């Protein structure tokens, strides 16, 4: 009977498998093809100051392009076409991340608007609760992205969106027993980015579809 409290204590150390809340997606009514805006997608920028996330940016623009296409609200310029034009414009330009350069390239490609997307921040926090033989740790990781659709001719912001994806993880230990483990922050951020891209594309399409009617 003396072992029962220990067993109950161990079972009481709650484990969270990492849990990230999924953002709700806008329902977008398709826009007639002849009314669809012709857009180009800029390279996604990491503005967190943490270079560890730079490699994650590469594949996101392609995913964003696919999401925009599936929204049935835009005509999307092939990214290779935009890249080729930007390569030809190297002289006199400040760099690949310069918005003015991207807008100029988009204009040459025939785009009506450019979609700029940023990884704005990744916030990490943890809280520990310890007793003589036990420790409980709760982690929070919040990934925030933002987007703005800019008209090529006027510089007007046609749509703007922002999304934060929270993730919670809890792991515990009691003597030699361990329940759960520390979250792989880079992996969690990558998963959150994929969810955020879907939200930003759908929200941008929803805003533009209202203007197109």
List the SSEs and their pairings.
Elements: H1 3-11, E1 16-20, E2 37-41, E3 45-46, H2 54-57, H3 60-70, E4 74-76, H4 79-88, H5 99-108, E5 113-130, E6 134-151, E7 157-174, E8 177-179, H6 185-211
Parallel strand pairs: 2-4, 2-5, 3-5
Antiparallel strand pairs: 1-7, 5-6, 6-7, 7-8
Helix pairs in contact: 3-6, 4-5
Rounded to an integer in angstroms, the radius of gyration calculated over CA atoms is 22 Å
| N to C succession of SSEs | HEEEHHEHHEEEEH
Please identify the structural class as seen in this structure. Answer: alpha/beta
Overall geometry comes to elongated
Rounded mean pLDDT score: 83
Q: Count the strands?
A: 8
What does this structure look like?
This protein is an alpha/beta fold. Strands 1, 2, 3, 4, 5, 6, 7 and 8 form an eight-stranded mixed sheet that branches. A hairpin with a 2-residue loop joins strand 7 and strand 8. The protein is elongated.
């Amino acid at each position: 009977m003396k072992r029962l409290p220990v067993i109950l204590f161990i079972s009481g150390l709650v484990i969270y498998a990492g849990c990230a809340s999924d953002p709700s997606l806008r329902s977008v009514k398709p826009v007639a093809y002849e009314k669809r805006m012709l857009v180009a997608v800029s390279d996604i920028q990491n503005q967190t100051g943490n270079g560890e996330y730079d490699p994650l940016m590469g594949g996101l623009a392609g995913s964003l392009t696919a999401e925009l296409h599936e929204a049935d609200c835009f005509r999307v310029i092939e990214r290779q076409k935009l890249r080729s034009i930007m390569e030809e414009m190297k002289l006199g330009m400040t760099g690949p991340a310069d918005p003015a350069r991207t807008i100029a390239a988009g204009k040459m490609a025939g785009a009506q608007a450019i979609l700029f997307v940023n990884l704005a921040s990744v916030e990490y926090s943890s809280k520990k609760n310890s007793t003589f033989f036990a420790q409980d740790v709760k982690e929070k990781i919040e990934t925030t992205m933002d987007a703005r659709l800019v008209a090529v001719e006027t510089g007007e912001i046609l749509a703007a969106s922002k999304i934060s994806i929270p993730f919670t993880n809890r792991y515990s230990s009691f003597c030699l027993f361990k329940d759960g483990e520390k979250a792989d922050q880079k992996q969690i951020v990558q998963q959150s980015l994929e969810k955020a891209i879907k939200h930003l594309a759908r929200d941008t399409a929803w805003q533009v579809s209202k203007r197109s009617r």
